[in-house]
Amino acid sequence: MSNGTSNGGGQQEPDSKKSMFEAYYRSQLKALIKTEADWEGLMESLQTPLPITFRLSSGKTLRQFEEEYVPRLQAQTLKPAPLDWYPARQAWRVKVARSTLRGKDCHAKQDSSLQEFHSWLLVQAELGCVHRQEA
Questions:
Q1: For residues 94 and 52, is the Cβ–Cβ distance under 8 A?
Q2: Confidence (pTM)
Q3: Alpha carbon of 13 to those of 2, 8, 21: distances in Å?
């Protein structure tokens, strides 16, 4: 199975999809992206996982998050930070990919504090105290 071939199920190979993606966006963005370094920077940005962001609707939940989970996340260099534009430190960003938080990669499966944080987020979301926040 080489670049540009079908895998037997009518779907294109991942390398072929990547080259088609790049060809399309190079043609669309040729007026904006002048150098190969600009292109490489764009590709790197597109492949960087987005951080998780959420808002807390309860003062008790906020205190628990700040006292219990912020220090743990900082110890793992996940850089939890309140969103500057949201009042009273009730919206936060944590630099961890959703797949890592959900334990879908080998690094997260070994990290019990990240699993505990994920479980806490799920429970608080069920209780209506934590809400996803696109930011």
A1: yes
A2: 0.71
A3: 8, 10, 12
